[in-house]
Write a structure and sequence with these properties.
It is a single chain. With 419 residues, the chain is of the alpha/beta class. It is built from 11 helices and 19 strands. The chain folds into 3 domains: 52-156, Immunoglobulins (Immunoglobulin-like, Sandwich); 167-172 and 226-418, Rossmann fold (3-Layer(aba) Sandwich), CATH 3.40.50; 181-221, no CATH class. It has helices at residues 3-22, 25-48, 206-212, 249-266, 289-301, 310-317, 338-346, 369-377, 391-394, 405-408, 414-418; strands at 52-57, 62-64, 68-77, 83-91, 101-105, 110-118, 123-127, 129-135, 142-147, 151-156, 181-182, 188-194, 216-221, 227-232, 271-276, 280-286, 325-331, 351-357, 381-385. A 6-stranded mixed beta sheet has the order 16-15-14-17-18-19, sandwiched between helices. The chain is elongated, with a radius of gyration of 32 Å.
Length: 419
């Protein structure tokens, strides 16, 4: 209730009290005028919302956190009566306030304008419902009416470009693919050679045989050197809340995972995702564009409320990996219990690495340096990420010496230096 409405109600109560208490005609006339104005105001606000049609057009059903999604609102007055003092706002459950727009319409008139909705948080939300608030000329009475049905909208996590990301994340020595000859017939052909006795007829390259006038067979390759797995630790006890809903270890972990996945897709690497969050998310590596969308949708929904420990999750995931895989674990946990599980996967021939988020920037008290010593001793590459640090720089190279860990990665922030 607005202050103006409250003031009118108080005035109405006082006039009513004096009118019946004193019996003076002046107070009765004043009361009748107030009641008449109230009836006109309510009728005005109610009629303003009648005969309205509203349309909202939005092409995209997905967006990225930190960006704006564009839409177009069209409001149509189907009555001959003019409409005034209308406020049009898109109603959404996204955090933050949606900007409104004041509108006045003549009879049988329509208005169209563009609206930009800021995507402030990852997840699944409802957009597309529009709320119109009507008021009388004195601004005393406000009536609201909602138009259209809400439409689901997915907000992907933000992605940071990683042009200098260490190629060990993909188990590649450079930006190019590596080859690995195999005896089986695969979809990748690396070369053509002359036919040898015992070669299968299925390997014969008939166009090249006709050209060379002798039997030529195909040499097959395993293809890419590895499938890439990204594991995000979403156990509840591993994370710290930080300052707000955006600046915490959960959001930073998801941003790192989305950025690494996007970079691996750019390198044409089959990439999979696993997370032990509110649900167990496991997506096997693939290269299709639809698969990348599925991974980003999973990261948009994942929450750090999981109860399965990282070590248990890694042991359960071990059976799905082979020695041609690459595994990257993203975690703010400084516990050492998950290191043996990761080391057992490494002994299978899987190339493993850890992106370690410093929990001290988000309220934690444990120094991660000792954990880096253990990872280094087990020949596991570790990459340190601090709050506010450039992610491309942090993932460019792993820590080369544990004794220089703080000097390499966890440089004191400006606030710590000043202190």
């Amino acid at each position: 209730m607005s202050k103006r409405t409250l003031a009118i109600l108080v005035l109405l109560f006082l006039i009513t009290f004096y009118a019946f208490g004193t019996g003076f005609a002046f107070f009765f006339r004043f009361l009748y005028v107030l009641l008449l104005l109230a009836a006109i105001g309510i009728a005005w606000a109610w009629l303003n919302l009648r005969g309205m049609e509203l349309q909202l057009t939005r092409i995209a059903s997905r967006g990225r956190m930190g960006e704006y999604v564009e839409g177009r609102i069209r409001i149509i007055n189907k009555n001959k009566l003019p409409k005034s003092w209308l406020e049009v706002v898109e109603y959404t459950d996204l955090p933050g306030e949606s900007p409104g727009r004041g509108v006045a319409l003549l009879g049988n008139q329509s208005r169209t304008w563009r609206t930009d909705t800021y995507l402030s948080k990852r997840g699944k939300f409802n957009l597309g419902q529009v709320e119109i608030t009507s008021q009388d000329p004195l601004g005393v009475f406000h009536l609201k009416r909602r138009f259209l049905d809400p439409v689901p909208f997915t907000v992907f996590p933000s992605v940071i470009p990683l042009p200098d990301m260490d190629m060990r994340f993909a188990h590649l020595p450079s930006d190019s693919r590596t080859t690995q000859p195999v005896n089986q017939i695969t979809t990748d052909v690396s070369s053509v050679r002359e036919y040898n006795p015992g070669d299968s007829f299925r390997r014969i390259h008939w166009p090249y045989t006709a050209k060379m006038n002798k039997l030529m067979v195909k040499e097959f390759d395993l293809g890419l050197s590895a499938d890439a797995w990204v594991v995000v630790d979403m156990q509840r006890t591993s994370h710290w809340e930080g300052d707000d809903e955006i600046n915490n270890t959960e959001e930073l972990s998801v941003t790192i995972a989305a950025s690494i996945i996007t970079r691996l897709v750019e390198l044409s690497m089959p990439v999979g995702l696993a997370a032990n969050g509110d649900n167990s998310y496991i997506f096997r590596p693939d290269t299709s564009p639809e698969h990348q969308v599925r991974l980003l949708e999973a990261l948009a929904e994942a929450r750090a409320t999981g109860t399965i420990s990282l070590e248990r999750f890694l042991y359960d995931l071990r059976g799905q990996m082979s020695r041609f895989n690459t595994l990257t674990v993203i975690t703010p946990s400084t516990r050492t219990e998950w290191v043996p599980a990761l080391n057992s996967i490494r002994r299978q021939g899987v190339n493993v690495g850890v992106v370690l988020i410093d929990p001290r920037d988000f309220g934690g008290a444990t120094n991660p340096e000792f954990l880096v010593d253990i990872l280094f001793a087990n020949d596991i590459a570790a990459y340190g990420v601090r709050k506010g640090q450039a992610l491309n720089e942090a993932l460019r190279l792993p820590v080369d010496r544990p004794d220089n860990y703080l000097g390499q990665v966890f440089q004191p922030s400006a606030q710590e230096s000043t202190a």
